[in-house]
Each structure stands twice: as structure tokens, then as C-alpha cells.
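Just wondering, can you check both lines?
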Amino acid sequence: TLELDFSDGFTVLTGETGAGKSILIDALSLALGERAEAGVVGPGASKAEVSAEFDVAKTSPLREWLIQNDFNADEPTCLLRRVVDAAGKSRGFINGSAATLAQMREAGEMLSFTLDAMARGGICDQLAGGFHRYSTDREWLVPHFEKMLYDQALLVRVYRQAHSVTALPQY
């Protein structure tokens, strides 16, 4: 079991090769509705389970969507959970209620604002492409001029996943 608690604001995943960054991104993709395969279930295990919890503002479009689709919207969070069995069949849940894969993806689309903000923000290199590794100011407008090739590769995967889920051209 792995549990991460991200602080408010922009979060950067970093670590040495083999630290688990790709595992975390793949798990998040599953929670957001990416196609599941039996290979995600570990040897000897009967199932794999992934959960991702997101803070949701009372006035957010996602909260309105939760209400319109009869999902519990009483809490200030949205819990996406996916269970994949050894045969590759999966079940999805939003705030404890069964959800279709399409609903998981739709909720994920509403959470893509972070990717949009990254692409518009100061750490995106509009001239040379890619993203700077981190910023030197609190608002993330002044980039530190260092780019790591491996970090760029991870972001490419995240944006590719966002495109496959949303089909939006900016990803």
C-alpha cells in the first residue's frame, strides 16, 4: 500500500530511476479511466486496487457533475477507485458508488485543469518545448532553467494519457 498526501499547489514528482514515479503515474491513469489490463495485477494476487482522492471545491464543475450523476457530493473530496481482477476485468467507483468507465473518464477530464495550468504557466518553455524542472517563485511563474530528460519523458506520458482520455488537441 502506498499513500501520498500532496500539499496545496503545484506538486512535482521526482526521484531516482526505479523509485516508482512511473508506477504512480500508471496507477493515477487507471483511476482516471485508462484501459485496464491483467498485467497490473501482481503475481499471486487476485486483484489490483487503485484509489485517488482529489479536493473538490463546493463551486467546482466536478461537484455539480457529481450531483447531476447521483454520486455523493457531501464531502469536499472526490474518491476515484478502480479494481482490476486477474483476468483484466475492472470495476470503477466514484465516491463509493459504482461508476462506468465513461463516468470515470468524464470525472478525470474535469480534473485535467492542472495539466492546462502547467501548459499555460511559467514552467512551460514556450520556445524550446518541455517544462523546466521547478520554479523559483511561489506563483510558479519564474522557471529555474534546468530541464531533466527523464522528467520530460514522464510529462509526455501524462499529457498523452490526458489526450487519450479527453481527445483534446492541446494535449
